Amino acid sequence: MKSLERILPLILAAIPLGCSGASPRVAGARAELHATSPAPDAVAAAPVEATTTAEVAAAPDAPAVPAVESTPTPGKKRIGSIGDFSYIYKHPEHKGLALGYVRMGTSVALRSDKPAADGKGCGRGWYAVEPRGYVCLDPSMTLDLEDPYFKALQTVAPKNTEVWPYSYAFSNGAPMYSRVPTAEEAAKAERSFGPAGSFVQLAEWSAGHEELIRNGVTIDATDPVPDYFAGGKRLVGAGPVRNAQKLVFKVIPNGSMLAYAKAFELNGRVWLVTPDLTIVPADRVRPFRRSTFHGVDLGGDVRLPLAWNRTKGLRPRYKRDSAGGMVEVDQAFPAKSFVQITGERVNDGKKPYLALRGGEGLFVAESDVTVTKVRDKLPRGIKEDQKWLEVKIVPGTLTAYVGSTPVRATLFSPGKGGAPVPGYDPYIYSMTKTGQFPVEWKDRVAIMSPDKGPPTVLWFTDVPNIQYLRAPLAMHASYWHEDFGNPKSAECVNVAPEDAKWLFDWTLPALPDGWGGMRPGDGNGPGTPIVSTAL
After folding, report:
1. How far apart are CA 427 and CA 421, in angstroms?
2. Does pLDDT of 39 surpass 90?
3. DSSP alpha helices (H): ranges in 409-534?
4. Strand, coil or helix: what is 281?
5. pTM of the entire structure?
């Protein structure tokens, strides 16, 4: 572990971290941050379909109603996943792109409790699932939802109704145990990590990932000891810890992010239960505080244009003095908040100001804010009754529309390189691409990592509400910072967790009950277009 901590800054200094946080941009050494789900590969040839009136779940006269995923079908038998991912195919055979998948610890309703008669390449049979597609009853799936391993996975499965499916922490370098160790076992296994609570400060590349860490705050136990870990028991199942005889299943390196579903105390120590049922000592991670930032629904008393304070400090309001100049008044507005403006722009001879709507002669300095305004006309190919998103890279603003009607506005963080520059590869220089991209894959919760194959060097555990636009370019929640409105990622559209969930539920296609991820096309419906522009 010591050797890994020595070389990790050197490795990452040469590898921009895709959609993560503050990261260097080194030509010729690009490694994207991608989900460890089918997304980057399975969507390459996903068909693009136009959104029609019948497919739009929210009409312009009721624009803020989300196109949420379907609800469970009562009385239907279900099939559950006990592997990382269990893929759903259009036909009962391993052929073509997956329609989606079932995540470990979750289940999907069956259209029939009998295997398909024409299934191919699956010894125990293909089962038709709701609302479409087939899953193979391979070792990653079970029809026995009373199976102890599946029931244990259910206790740590994400709840799709929650903005925060898990609690999150920043690893100081920690073992991920397959069972609760004894004090002697822990002392031996953790000898190379240093004293509990200590950590090696990483280099500048990690600064953007550490902004919400609650240094000096301990994680308290909030749950009883799970039955499946009581008395030093080890879980045995078909998942990642199946037949794991090693006490330390793997290590989560310093700098990686940890998601945990439970925190319990045993043997005088607090232990965190991860979504894949490993156990991490709480004194070897630092918890994140939860960002409170989110956008605003438009309509009624709130309408565009809006002026956002995207800085980290207060910004003043102004009024005219008797000589016609501008003077500050004691009505500053806080960081990451907005004021409504009229669109009137005035100049006091020194710099421009924007008039506040209903502000009784109040103004904000144009240089202090970034502005969300209504787009002049619909982008090419977008219909008046169609859902779409506009992301503006330099202003750092994101607006959801139904046709020409804006329905929600917020801030987002684009790539550190900003908008593309002619002659420079956006992929290499951490620039957010411009263009029109339909949503091509959605992950409700997934691990993101620059590693090829299973993540071992660096990963961001269980990032919520990921939507791929053109892999590896994605729009996703960022739980490790809240500097929205400013360049932050290596290319992706970073949004606040609450906004990420709203956007995920609102865009098409809507995730069916029990599905953990999906792509558009082949009966799943269209992907909502995202229009990315520099200004």
Report:
1. 11
2. no
3. 497-506
4. strand
5. 0.89
